[in-house]
Design brief:
Layout: H1 12-19, E1 27-32, E2 40-46, E3 51-57, H2 66-80, E4 94-95, E5 104-105, E6 111-116, E7 121-122, H3 130-147, H4 165-178, H5 186-196, H6 204-210, E8 217-219, E9 228-231, E10 237-240, E11 247-249, H7 251-262, H8 280-294, H9 300-304, H10 306-326, H11 339-356, H12 358-371
Antiparallel strand pairs: 1-2, 2-3, 3-6, 4-6, 5-6, 7-9, 8-11, 9-10
Length: 372
Amino acid sequence: MAGADMNTAPTTSVQHAAAAFALATPIRSVEPLGLGLINDTYLVTDAAGTQAVLQRINRRAFPKPERILENLRTLLAHIAARDTGTRTLQLPEIVQARDGQDWFIDADGSFWRTLTYITGSVTHERLTSAAQAGEVGYALGRFHALVQDLPTEHLHVTREGFHQTPLYFARFREALARAPAHNPSPALSFCFEFANARESIVGALEDAKRQGILALRIIHGDPKIDNVLFDGASDKAISLIDLDTVQPGLLHYDIGDCLRSACNTAGESPGQASDAQFDLDRCHALMTRYVAETRAFLTPSDIDYLPDAIRLIPFELGLRFLADHLNGNVYFKVKWPEQNLLRAETQFRLTASIEAKLPAIRTLITDAIARA
């Protein structure tokens, strides 16, 4: 439902989809869940109090949604054989439909899947401490460590062109060329100038990948902080969810996206974009815990390109929000017409904050490596 409001009250079609999955007892309730901008997500509770997560997959974002479930089967089997320590990542399991499939397609052609709900977990829309950032770093690092020996050819690509910044820059330019002529607002003028002035950086990661400097590995694809589940009692990270974009990619995509989300003190949706600031203490805590899990397989080139990733990924997301705003909000869900513009400006202001702190970021990365 791209371009619509956040998850709305469950309809008859949602109730019908929920009933198609093999829960143990009859359904008691179906309620909207989370703040996702792509899929529609619901919390299903059965008569016994068991809960599960029902999602309608956005076919615009995922043209071949069955690949998501096939990847998840492979991922869960791989991690189950390796995550045997005292502290493990609890990944959601697939709840099969009553016909034995991993998904259900309704009469309207909507694609639905259901996953187990991780009880006792909470999410944080905004982090409040460096300790929480460290837990996020642990979760992402642990995930990367568990899948670093999973061959990339064993997983489908679920999102073609995902995190390829030159592609998003080209789409921004195309949207700008199609946009009707008008006097831009101050926010729009800032975004245009900011984006156009950084054309030279968009190829940093893709060029390194093409030249063989950086290698493809299995990545999460969307490790923002609300996809990290914390234990409600201890505030320790216990899970990474939203595994739709687990596929071959660069670790740098994940690291940049994770830091973008965790280290912005204003959160993902501040009241005004100028509040966006990159917090070095959170970055240091996150990278220290991340590197503690991944140092054994990070290459010197991986490390060299970390500052580029930390700068580039928020800029890339800003391009995506800006292009969607120019295209009429057809991809990301919005509550008002200018919301994607606010999101774009927020990411660009965050990028500017990162640029001003790049020397300090390089120093703290060096320190995190030394501690590992």
